[in-house]
Design brief:
single chain, alpha+beta, 3 helices, 3 strands, 20% strand, oxidoreductase, NDH-2, flavoprotein
């Protein structure tokens, strides 16, 4: 979870992103206490609308020189929201 009013400060380097983000373990305590519970920070590599599957790849491998970990997630309903990239251009 992110504290949105401070999010713009992370884009320009005033704050680090971890300063405005709530740890997932506080929001979802089962990730800490339930066995076989995992959290992956990942991005979507593809969507198969016929099979109802999302193909993901983790963001970081902790600096290990190996193939990135990929996995798929099945879904019943899928909501796709538009994202944004910064367009900071230094002239």
């Amino acid at each position: 979870m992110v504290f949105t009013p401070l999010l713009t400060s992370t884009c320009v380097g005033t704050l680090e992103f971890r300063s405005v983000a709530e740890p997932v373990s506080r929001i979802q305590p089962a990730l800490v206490t339930a066995p076989n519970s995992y959290f992956y920070l990942a991005y979507c590599k593809g969507v198969d609308l016929d099979k109802h599957e999302i193909y993901c790849e983790i963001v970081s491998n902790s600096g290990l020189p190996q193939e990135p970990y990929r996995f798929k997630v099945a879904y019943d309903k899928l909501v796709i929201a538009a994202g944004a990239d910064d367009i900071y251009i230094m002239e």
